[in-house]
Write a structure and sequence with these properties.
The protein is mostly helical. The chain has eight helices and two strands, in the order ααββαααααα. Helix content is 53%, strand content 3%.
Length: 189
């Protein structure tokens, strides 16, 4: 919005929010937590698959629209690279990711593959990610294709996941919904 309105205050507000959220939610392994509770001073929902996709595309949006030389570019690009590397390192052989990503026994949230295919490829195209992540993007794209039925509907997409402090909440999410956060990332990819 700051770029469209040519309003530096809005650019600074957006960059500031991106920096604050990255500092608060990105974990040492590069993955993002779902949320933070001020009352406990802790993050929760570490490695929620679809959330990694939102973070990936959000960081790319901010980086793409920041003015050249903006001081937030370096820290946000570093956060993006850490996330991309974490995603590539945790990708399953079939191109998907479990949710939570660290729980290899949990279900594959198929929208994560679509988010990753779109974000990793876009990051390479923008020159903010190394081309070495392209193989992961390709595997994610192939995995995304397997989650689309002939009629265009999606399989393997979970219901809305509200913030919850119980780790089992993410791995136990109901699956099988036709929702915008399933079809949308596939269309973007």
């Amino acid at each position: 919005l700051g770029e469209i309105a040519n309003d530096e205050r809005l650019v600074e507000a957006g960059a500031g929010q991106a920096l604050a959220l990255t500092a608060l939610l990105q974990q040492p392994d590069g993955l993002f937590a779902h949320f933070f509770l001020e009352r406990t001073g802790q993050t929760y929902g570490h490695g929620w698959g679809r959330g990694q996709g939102w973070a990936l595309l959000g960081l790319l949006d901010v980086l793409e629209h920041l003015p050249d030389g903006h001081p937030a570019q370096g820290p946000l690009r570093a956060a993006l690279v850490r996330l991309a590397e974490a995603l590539v390192a945790t990708q399953e052989p079939d191109g998907h990711w479990p949710t939570p990503i660290a729980d290899r026994a949990s279900f594959h949230e198929t929208s994560t593959a679509s988010f990753a295919a779109a974000g990793l490829a876009r990051g390479v195209a923008l020159g903010v990610l190394d081309a070495s992540v392209s193989a992961g993007a390709g595997k994610a794209w192939q995995a995304s294709l397997t989650s689309i039925r002939d009629d265009g509907s999606t399989v393997g997409v979970s219901a809305a996941l509200w913030a919850c402090t119980a780790p089992s909440h993410y791995a136990g999410a109901p699956v099988g919904f036709q929702v915008p956060w399933g079809a949308g990332p596939f269309l973007v990819a």
